[in-house]
Amino acid sequence: MTFYTARRRLFGAASSLALMGSLTLVALANSYASTQTTSGQLGLTNLTPPASIADSASSQLTRRFWDELQLESQDAWTKLRDDFQWQNEAMNARVQEWIEYYRSKPENIVEITERARPWIAWITQQVEARGLPGEIALIPFVESSFDPKARSHFGAAGLWQIMPRTGDALGLQRNSAWDGRVDVVKSTKAALDYIEMQADEWYDGDLMLSLAAYNAGAGNVNRSRRSAQSRGLEGGYWDLRLPKETMAYVPKLLAISQIINDPEHYGIALPEIDGNAAFAKVALTNPISLAQAATMAGVSTIELAELNPGLKSSTIDPSHSQQLLVPADKAATLREGLASLSSGREAINIAANTSQTGMHVVEHGETLSKIALKHDLSMTDLARWNGISNPEALQPGQQLTLSGS
């Protein structure tokens, strides 16, 4: 089940109308141009389009171009606000209490939002792609203060504070070298899957109830719902009686989103964060050390480790994770380095295989004498076995037999 909003549909309709308007203006301008040419041929000079209409069309097209360009360059917070769906809940007294609490500690808000820098734009994209309320992108604020390595005394780990058994059920691998609950990409997908799954399975799509279950467990929430309904209430989130932490869970989330929705009103200065994802995924096919990957990408090992918190050893093994997160502007550099490394490994494998099968593949710069020496053969025999009359004519990639049989 998806949760697209009327706002998104209206935005899509407005975009379509804007595009139709642009096309109409272009067609109008082209029509006048065509008429002018025809009228000139016929001697009808009074059909020239008024300059004001042409200027107006040009002006509107230019203005629309810059408007669209501005939309594309939104910062992370603006994009997040565009996806908020629960701001009308902010007047609830429990939400207001938490707004005042966070408002009294602005330095905490700034610290946590700064810590969110590498992740918030990408997480917002994942939440938006599912049509979920943008507020859900801020769950790591409440769960872990946006610290991927956060661990609770109950055993929960990562941005989304996923428990071991829950992580196992969601397919998040754990071993001595890797913890998928701490990997931001894998844990985000798992957490959002879990929230949607519970909303569909238990609560007819009610995401607030699903968030309560995410914190307290579906069994506790379902019992509290039945109790509320027995008292004549509907059994929505605000009707529940749950442990103190869960009672505060959604109000905290809504309070944070309300502050981010209007930080100036609450005297908070959010850090500037680009609306594009700060990192890119680079596919891995062979094990590689974190230090070697960092050198290839041109970043520090510490920076690379911070982007890949699921890694618990100094080597990245594709059997645990088939991708490595790197700063977005370094991805191409790392891919080129990995391609060169792969080519080198392939050449080594070819050399080993051909040596075992009695063949040698000529590499750039090799001479017949060097090849003979390498394989402890006579240069004369090597030339005779391969029908070589001119040893200087060897070509890279040429295959030579290493025996007369």
Architecture overview:
- The chain is mainly α.
- The chain folds into four domains: 6-73; 77-261, Lysozyme (Orthogonal Bundle), CATH 1.10.530.10; 279-339, no CATH class; 358-405, Roll (Membrane-bound Lytic Murein Transglycosylase D, Chain A), CATH 3.10.350.10.
- The protein has helices at residues 6-42, 51-72, 76-82, 93-103, 106-115, 120-129, 139-144, 164-169, 184-202, 207-216, 218-230, 244-261, 290-297, 301-307, 331-356, 368-374, 379-385; strands at 279-283, 288-289, 315-316, 323-327, 359-361, 399-401.
- The strands form three sheets. It has a two-stranded antiparallel sheet with strand order 1-4.
- The chain is elongated and about 100 Å long.
- The relative contact order is 0.08.
- Belongs to the transglycosylase Slt family.
- One of its GO terms (molecular function) is peptidoglycan lytic transglycosylase activity.
- Pfam families: LysM, SLT.
- Residues 1-29 form the signal peptide.
